[in-house]
Amino acid sequence: METIEKLRNTHNLTAQEYKSLLINENSDFLAVLNAQARDMTVSIFGKDVFIRGLIEVSNFCKNNCLYCGIRAANKEIERYRLSKSEILDCCRHGYELGFRTFVLQGGEDPVLTDDLMDDIISTIRSEFPDCAITLSLGERSAASYKRFKASGANRYLLRHETFNQEHYSKLHPAGMSRDKRLECLAGLKDAGYQTGTGIMVGSPYQTIDNIVEDLLYIQELKPEMIGIGPFIHHNGTPFANMPDGSLELTLRLISIFRLMSPAALIPATTALATLSPDGRTRGILAGANVVMPNLTPASRRGDYSLYEGKASTGAESAEGLAELKKELNAIGYDVIVHRGDYDKNYDRKCIM
Ligand code: 5AD
């Protein structure tokens, strides 16, 4: 318990101390950790939960990450790419519903050139001046990150997945490297984005020591956003028979990251909600403060299948916002209309 206290006060621990938080099996320990993290979140954000409208712009991907259902080698899914006008329609629909952040996420699709993305981002920027634009388009050159920032993007999500090189190489094909991933993250920070990184919890071959390395890396990088979700197998991948990650360990990590980084934007991820019906609310109660409902046209959602059973209806969908609100109201939280930038002096503004 003193280690929780130390993290809460100093936001900084050693490897050994982080490890002790990960392996403590005392029955009240997780509850205490979650409650401390929740109190920290409430002290900064009140009980406001930010929503982001997730637009899955393309499921074409040139990569073959071993865990991911949209890997190039998976021939079982139908590939799609939204047009500029479809993406704008998603934004318009989302704006009406109360979204003030749009997240453009896609596989590493070579057709999404810098020119094309520049045009799409600039158009969204001019039509929605009061909204934040988040990109999640994988590894690109430092020059394209800079260009997209100049076109009007504000934030970028790029999980490092795992800091350990050997572990990274067990999850990714030859040709992808941990160093390249970290270099991209440095480029994003350098370009001035609110930068998000994170990991899958319980990815194949992951050890507790690997997670400690992730904690130390994130402690050092100080990203504005931290995405933590359980690994969930996908039948069309080499990891089809690997066990899914643990709900409890995911919640434990959300809480540790909150105490490490009090003002960070931490989502209760779709993977967490997919793993368990109460995953989303438990994520919020463990210190998360963001939810990312799906704004992708419903006809395409099934093809953006990163893992089996990926939730995209009900409270995970933009049209299910009323359901999400009800779910969060039931635990005393509110969904709000707000850009929800990284802001240490967050001031509650406008309730839905
Ligand atoms: N299980 C859980 N998360 C996954 N992602 C990709 N595949 C899976 C999976 N099988 C996550 C990765 C990626 C994010 C967009 O989705 O962490 O960064």
Brief description of this entry?
With 352 residues, the chain is an alpha/beta fold. It contains 14 helices and nine strands.
How would you classify the helix and strand content by structural class? alpha/beta
Strands in their spatial order, largest beta sheet = 2-3-4-5-6-7
Q: State the helicity in percent bands.
A: 40-55%
Order of helices and strands: HHHEEHEHEHEHHEHEHHHEHHE
Alpha carbon gyration radius: 19 Å
Spans where pLDDT lies below 50 across 5 or more residues: none
Shape, principal axes of CA atoms: globular
Instruction: Report the biggest beta sheet as strand number plus sense, adding barrel if it closes.
Output: 6 strands, parallel
The number of helices is 14
CA distance, first residue to last residue? 38 Å
Bound molecules: 5'-deoxyadenosine
Number of DSSP E strands: 9
Mean pLDDT: 97
Report the portion of residues in β strands.
5-15%
